[in-house]
Design a protein that fits this description.
Length: 285
C-alpha cells in the first residue's frame, strides 16, 4: 500500500531533559519529492512539503518565465490514481498552444536552479533580458506596519507551530493585512506557492504587496519577487550579497533583520512612508 504524502507526520523520539531520557510522540514537517511534468515530459523535481502543490508548480513556472499568467495553463492537476506510484507527488501541467518551450534549455535552467543557482551578473542580465515589468515606484508602506508583520506571520504558521521545522512566506498589503501565507521546507518553495496563489487568484503582478519571508533574503527569493512584480521584500534574517545587488539593480526595496522595532534597509528606502533619513553624524548630534 502506497503511503500518502503528509504535511505533518508523527514520530517517536527520545528527549534528554534534566538528566533523564523521556520517550514521547513528536511531529515532523513532511518532505517529499514533487515532479513537475509538462504534458508527458518531465521538467524538474523539487523537494517540498506536501500541500499547495498546484500553486508551487504554477509559481515555479511563472518565476522561471515559462508562463506569464493563468491563461497560459490549460490544465494543472496531480497525476490520477491509475496504478502509478505516488501520483500525489507528480503534477501534470498542460500549457496553452502558443507557449513555446525549449525543453533542453528549460531542463538546464531548472537543474542549475535546484542545485546552486545561476550565479553573478549573468543571472541579473538574464532577468533584465526577459523584459520583466518595472516595479511600482509609487507603493509606500510605513515602518510601523513593517514592524508588525513578523508577529502576524508567526501566528499564522500552523505547521511550524506543530513541528518547528518549516519556512514561510506571506503576502501583506500596505496596511499590514495578511492576504496569504504558505509554508514549506524550502524558502524558495514557500515563495513560489505565494506566486502560484496570486496567479490563480488573478492578482499578478503583485504591485502593492509586501512579501515577508522567514530566514534570510537570498538571491532566489529576490529573483522570484521581481518577476512577480513585488516591490518590497522583508526578511527576518540577513540578505546575501547577490540579493542586495539584484534588488538595487531592479529597484526593489529589500529589508533585513526585521525584528521588534528595528530593521535594516539594503535598498529602496524611498518606499518607506513618513521616515526622515538621517546621516550618521545627524544621529550622533
Amino acid at each position: 500500500m502506497l503511503r500518502k504524502p503528509q504535511r505533518v507526520a508523527p514520530t517517536r523520539i527520545a528527549e534528554w531533559s534534566e538528566g533523564r531520557i523521556v520517550r514521547r510522540e513528536d511531529a515532523l514537517a513532511g518532505e517529499e519529492p514533487l515532479e513537475i511534468r509538462l504534458g508527458n515530459a518531465p521538467l524538474t523535481v523539487t523537494m517540498r512539503t506536501p500541500g499547495d502543490d498546484l500553486e508551487l508548480a504554477a509559481g515555479l513556472l511563472h518565476s522561471e518565465g515559462i508562463i506569464r499568467g493563468k491563461e497560459d495553463i490549460v490544465s494543472i492537476c496531480h497525476r490520477n490514481g491509475n496504478g502509478t506510484a505516488h501520483g500525489e507527488n507528480v503534477v501534470l501541467v498542460d500549457l496553452a498552444a502558443g507557449i513555446q518551450l525549449d525543453q533542453a534549455h528549460a531542463q538546464r535552467t531548472f537543474a542549475s536552479t535546484s542545485s546552486c543557482g545561476l550565479c553573478g551578473k549573468t543571472t541579473i542580465e538574464s532577468i533584465r533580458a526577459r523584459g520583466v515589468r518595472p516595479l511600482d515606484g509609487n507603493f509606500r508602506v510605513s515602518p510601523e506596519v513593517l514592524c508588525r508583520l513578523p508577529e502576524s506571520l508567526r501566528s499564522a504558521q500552523a505547521v511550524f507551530e506543530r513541528t518547528g521545522g518549516l519556512h514561510a512566506a506571506a503576502a501583506f498589503n500596505a496596511q499590514g493585512e495578511l492576504l496569504a501565507v504558505r509554508e514549506d521546507i524550502g524558502r524558495h518553495n514557500a515563495v513560489d506557492k505565494i506566486v502560484g496563489w496570486a496567479l490563480f487568484e488573478g492578482r499578478l503582478p503583485l504591485h502593492e504587496i509586501v512579501l515577508l519571508v522567514s530566514g534570510r533574503g537570498g538571491f532566489e527569493i529576490i529573483q522570484k519577487a521581481i518577476v512577480a512584480g513585488i516591490p518590497v521584500v522583508a526578511s527576518i534574517s540577513a540578505a546575501s550579497t547577490l540579493a542586495v545587488e539584484l534588488a538595487r539593480e531592479m529597484g526593489l526595496t529589500l529589508i533585513g533583520f526585521l525584528r521588534g522595532e528595528r530593521f535594516l534597509i539594503y535598498s529602496g528606502e524611498e518606499r518607506l512612508a513618513g521616515s526622515p533619513v538621517l546621516s550618521a553624524a545627524e544621529r550622533q548630534s
